[in-house]
Each structure stands twice: as C-alpha cells, then as structure tokens.
Amino acid sequence: MTPSYVDLNCDVGESFGPWTLGADAAVMPYITSANIACGYHGGDPRIMRKSVELALAHRVAIGAHPGLPDRTGLGHRTMDVSAGEVKDYVCYQVGALREFVRVAGGDLQHVLPHGMLYHMIEKDESLAMAAVEAVIESGGTQLILMASASGEFACICRRKGVRVASEGFADRAYNVDGTLVSRKLPDSLITDPQRAADRAVRMAIEGKVRTIDGVDINVSVQTIGCHSDTPGAERIVPTVREALEKAGLQVRPLRDWLPRAGGCRE
Fold it and tell me: Are strands 208-210 and 216-218 parallel, antiparallel or unpaired?
C-alpha cells in the first residue's frame, strides 16, 4: 500500500557570523521540517534565532540538529568522545535551540544528530544509548528522534520507547550496507534535481534505494532528508517536493501524522 504521508526535512542554520553556508531562505518554503544547527558544528546564537524565525514564518516544524564540537570540520570528522560527553553535547544543544523556539512562540518537534555524530551512534551502542537518554530527558516520548532508515539506532530508540522517524536522503549516495558514502569520495552527493527527486519518490513509495554500486537495498522512511549546502539545493528541494506530491504523497510535518512510539524486532 502506498503511504499517504511523508515529511521533507533539510539541514539549515549552519552559517556563522558573516560566513554564509547553504541556501536556507530558498529551500525553506518547500520543506516541512527544518534541522537547525545548534552552535557546535555550525551556527551561532544569532543564526539560530534567525533560522527559527524563518522556519516559523513558513510554518515549518523545527528540530534541533546537534553535532560534535568541530566547527572547523563542520562536524564531519571523527572525534574520540565518551558516552557521557555525547549525552551532554545533545542535552546542551537541544536546550539552547529550544529556548530560541520558545521565545519565538513555537514548539520543538524533533532531534536529528548531525554528520559524524549521526554515523558514530550507528556503530557504537553506548553512544547511541547516550543520545537516546538525552532526548528522553529533554522531551520524553513526545519529542521525535530522526534516525537512519533501517539502522540500529532507530531500533534502539524504539526499544527505549522514543518516537522515531526513519530518514532517507535524496541528495546523498548509499553504500550496500545502508550507510552513506563518505563525502570525501566521488559521487557522494546527488546534485541532479530530477535524480534526487526520483530517489526520494522511490524511497517513500517502494521502500528502496539504489546504492553507488548499482544494488537496490530496502529502506523504510517517514522523512526524506536534503541539505541546504548541497550544490544546487535551491533547485533540488523544490523538485523533490513537487515529485513527492505528484506521486500522490501528502508532504506534511511529522508532528501531524507520525504514529506514537512502537516496538522494534530484536
């Protein structure tokens, strides 16, 4: 059965001071959920406030996008961190963004770990548990946690009773094990708008994506992710949105339709 709903999210708010990164203003009218950087890998207090205001102006649901304290590497470099540090990093960043959302009259919808943190918690259960505990302490079972589609982290979240949205990327290439191709490698980014749109539709409707090696793998998604700093994002995101709607999907924020927390098979 074709799913009725899908969320379209995008990483935004990664600029810093006078340095601008990403086509945030151009993509915001087309997405339903915004993952706003919280000042560690990108963003700063002023950018956070402006990003929140921009999202609310377009009625876009807001999520915290906590990353590693790696501004130079934009959060894409591996760091030797403990579970306790991960828990505190997530708590600190979610809390900071939540306050900007609160004073603007909004509510925080979700949390999505960023970059290398996203990958590290897939591989290390202790780090995954730390991230889950931080989200539970911050928002209980109401705060949605976005996780890699069909990954181990999503299962850990569900076993702990967290409300989870599985994510698939329209503008990133996949390996056969379901992980993302390193940004250091050729063809890791999908920059052709129509190709990104076709991948998004196939993930949302068929639950499949073709890997960089030409193999189809299964992915069960509730939210499609894009990046505002992908070259051509201002064309990619509108094309993805249009394609999803033409395929018969209702593109809406997760808060409007995502089921409550459920189980996960061991």
Answer: antiparallel
13-34 pLDDT, tens per residue? Answer: 999 999 999 999 999 999 999 9
pTM: 0.94
164: left (phi over 0), alpha (psi -120 to 50) or beta: beta
Domain ranges in the chain?
5-172+221-230+248-256
Give residue-wise pLDDT tens across range 142-201. 899 999 987 888 888 888 889 999 999 999 999 999 999 988 899 999 999 999 999 999
Q: Are strands 5-12 and 250-251 parallel, antiparallel or unpaired?
A: parallel
Tell me the CATH class for 5-172+221-230+248-256. alpha beta
DSSP assignment of 213-246: TS-EEE---SEEEEETTSTTHHHHHHHHHHHHHH
The residues facing 210 across adjacent strands are 216
